[in-house]
Amino acid sequence: MIGSGSQDIGFGKRSHYLVAVVSVFFFLLGARLFHLQVIEGAEYQRKAENNFIHRVVLSPVRGLIKDRNGRVLVHNRPSYNVYIIPRFFTESAFDNLKRHLGLDDEQINYIDNKIIKAQGEKRFFSLLAVRDIGRDELAKLETNMHQMPGVRVVSETRRVYPHGPLAAHVLGYLNEVSGSEIERLKGYRPGDKIGRYGVERRWEFYLRGIPGMESFVVNASGQRKDENVQNKLLGPLSKRREDARPGYHLVLTIDADVQKSAERALRWHDSGAAVVLEAKTGRVLAMASKPSFDPNVLSGRLSQEQARALYDNPYNPMLDKVLQGSYFPGSTYKVIPAIAALEERLVDTSEELFCKKYHEYGKRSAFRCTKMHGPMDLYRAIVQSCNIYFYHMAERVGMDRMARYARDFGLGTPSGLGLNSEQGGFIPTKAWYNKNMPGGFRIGHTLNSGVGQGNVTVTPLQLAVLFSTIANGGKLYLPQIVERIESTDGEVVQEFPPQIRRRVQVSQKTLRLIREALSGVVNHPLGTAHEARVNDIEVAGKTGTAQVRKIGKARRGGKEWRRFMDHAWFAAYAPVGDPEIVVVVLVEHGGSAAKVAAPEAIKIIRHYFKQIKPRRQQKGDSI
Amino acid sequence: MQTLFRRLRVELDWTLLLILMSIIGIGLINLYSASRGLREGMFFQQVYWVILGFSVFLVVATIDYRLYNQYGYIIYVLGILTLILVVLIGRTVKGSTRWLGYGPFQIQPSEIMKVVAIIALAKYLHNEPTPEGRNLKQMVIPFGIVALPIALILLQPDLGTGMLILLIFFSLMLITKLKIRSLITLLSTGFVIVPLVWSFMLRDYQKRRILVFLDPSSDPSGAGWHSRQSIYAIGSGRLFGKGYMQGTQHQFKFLPEHWTDFPYSVWAEEWGFLGALILLGLYLFLIIWSIRLGAKARDRFGALICFGVGAMFFWHVIINVGMVTGLVPVVGVTLPLFSYGGSSILTFMMGAGLLMSVGSRRYWGS
What we know:
The complex is a heterodimer of chains A (623) and B (366).
Chain A: H1 5-9, H2 12-39, H3 41-52, E1 53-58, E2 65-66, E3 72-84, H4 91-101, H5 105-117, E4 127-133, H6 135-143, E5 151-160, H7 168-171, E6 174-176, H8 179-184, E7 193-195, H9 198-202, H10 204-208, E8 212-217, H11 227-234, H12 237-240, E9 241-242, E10 249-252, H13 256-265, E11 272-278, E12 284-290, H14 295-298, H15 304-311, H16 321-324, H17 335-343, E13 353-355, E14 374-376, H18 378-384, H19 387-397, H20 399-408, H21 430-436, H22 443-450, H23 460-471, E15 475-477, E16 482-486, E17 492-495, E18 500-503, H24 508-523, E19 540-546, E20 567-574, E21 581-587, H25 593-622
Parallel strand pairs in A: 2-10
Antiparallel strand pairs in A: 1-8, 2-3, 3-4, 3-5, 6-7, 8-9, 10-16, 11-12, 11-21, 13-14, 15-18, 16-17, 19-20, 20-21
Helix pairs in contact in A: 13-25, 17-19, 17-20, 18-24, 19-22
Chain B: H1 2-11, H2 14-34, H3 42-62, H4 65-70, H5 72-89, E1 91-93, E2 96-102, E3 105-107, H6 109-127, H7 136-155, H8 159-175, H9 180-200, H10 204-214, H11 224-237, H12 248-251, H13 263-296, H14 300-324, H15 342-360
Antiparallel strand pairs in B: 1-2, 2-3
Helix pairs in contact in B: 2-3, 2-13, 3-15, 5-6, 5-7, 6-7, 6-8, 6-14, 6-15, 7-8, 8-14, 11-13, 13-14, 14-15
């Protein structure tokens, strides 16, 4: 009987169960497919696209930094950097790379460490392995690229500071962005550079520009597919490429020539600062801090040797002394008690006080003068820098009133330039002494403050702002370092006109009396800076010799002696009749202000009026 | 002449033939896309294997299957001898000694052993029926029949094939009735044996694959890479697929071994859920059809042959599709008549030939 065999062997019923079991298994597979392809399909489509779409960030070209005359202080040049993708980077590729580039142990360790750190997904990311290779090495790599899977050479720009250490503290430098910064800031990726110091840091946002992006189709070994495939899968170039927007150019108020002469002023000294301001605008013409550094070196990867040279230097090259150095102002501060006494009508210009070389205060005679000046009025006391006279003035004005005038002139708080974590110096008050000194406030503190010692500290920039306020008739300007921001086509994006913070609460008469005395400091035969006087330009100013520490007899002439020598100050402006520029020079441990600081300051002034300014005017006329 | 046509029309299993042709046809279409940009001639080589496979199919189908019953143990002994030969003089590729052959004609006897084992098992079970259920003692000999080739295959080593023969064995045991007590004992010994196999028999790469299967994110670029990329390929195909020859996962080489172990991913990526389901439906139909042939076979041997071949197709499809969809760890199990490779094609065509031989003789009276 046809078909009856199945009954005989008894599989008929069982086969129905089998079909059911098989169907259940297939149903499960179908359900899995439905889950992957229909429910999660969009997500897997994205993941598959991420596989073959390789997004390359197009770095923007960083903006230039120019001086006020358009001279380029910072620019970019093309450079070739070698990147590796650890996932594809084989041992033999590494060996070939070592051979072609002649890597040293330090560089090899650097690369090894980076590869070890790249785990999981990160093994597919490009890592910067060698920076700025030469043309010959580039040629070698390019001809041998097939031996080095996972190696890419990328043309990028490198920051160049063509004048080396010139204005280093103003310009600052860049280096690689850190992991925590990438998390905190938007739009930075590993290997990107970020401004670390100076203008480069403060104006990072404007200088940097906006990165662009280009997408490529790549295969599993990271090779790019041809243009047809690109167009098919990602659309035309305009759709898959977004150009980077270059950074804005920065035009500084700095004049490179003035900057050079300010740095030359410090040439013979180990450590010091010089700042030049425009008296009528508050703009910074030059800011020099010594010792300096070369931003070209700091913007690369420092070798251990270079790092040691920088950080072991006892004079601290990484400190911007103009903005971050807090110093006793010494006698330059005497203008404050003088102004306060005049304003408060506690002294008359004709009143004479007698200097017998020491001040009677209790039984001690710790408050001395440099010599016995004899009878002193205000003019003579400033000209000859008589301490005794200002001890009296300080006593009459009192600690807190003196502090109020000092603050009015911008001392005690940062001047607002906004670079390099500017310091504010310190102006003490009675309350401060009562709180912080064992035994509280004593009259001796007032006396010390009157001559810019004790606990009074200022930065060189603050002192320059003080003197420019005296010079310009009481306008306290916000010091500025950036004049304007320009786009790459030279269009002005933003301008920074001079900005007056306030007018000081001091009468013109008082300021005029002070200016007369400051002129006498240089031009009167008995003036403390008379020996630095030049004939062809009339300068006014005030010397200051700030005691760093009392030099004991035993130390004098010893090895450490220089480190304990006084700081020499000279704060000046010129021309006397219609002040245009203010110059402050500080020579750390320089000793005599008149012999060391004043001549250098006056050299800067003279150079400005005799060489730089006439040249500029000539140029200006010819345009 | 008339009788020949009549016999062809009635006795030849046209349905089976149609399903086989459909799967093979789709497989070739898919391979053409999958092999683009790879080794030249891969596609045509497969065409040759398919032609050879059909010849084998015809030969196997033409011979009366009762002859296989008669010579079952001789076939088995020949198969074992071939496996010993592989161990002795086989060709080694990627650490496994699996191949035997001359020149371009290389086959893996372990693959064909699956069919041989089915014949031997069917012969034994045909002769020793146990209507009231098989106890453990009665399982010793049939287990011995498969244990010997499995041991030889694990020597190569080829875990996937060994495991498949074991699965076919258990399938046939279940179909021919097993005592509940035996089943429980077997399952519990399994729990003892698995850790032993893990520690002594698995190679490091196999262990790694299993570990990664359990936690795919542990090493995305290593062993989990295959499985993940396969899932991306299938998932990104979505409902309608990316279109023929448009699959990015295999074209850009993110999908490894996509012509042997992962052709289903290529298919599902390019043809979407619908295409994937159609192919899956063909396999389901083929397996149900073989169960039906088994149920209708004239004798026990014929029925067991059909169930055995059906089980072989079933486990291959479930494991391969499970593997490419991330349900099963990645083991080298091919997709029947779809994967590239001569041994695989020949084995399944032989199996199909057996189905045909049993099926077309079910009407013959005694």
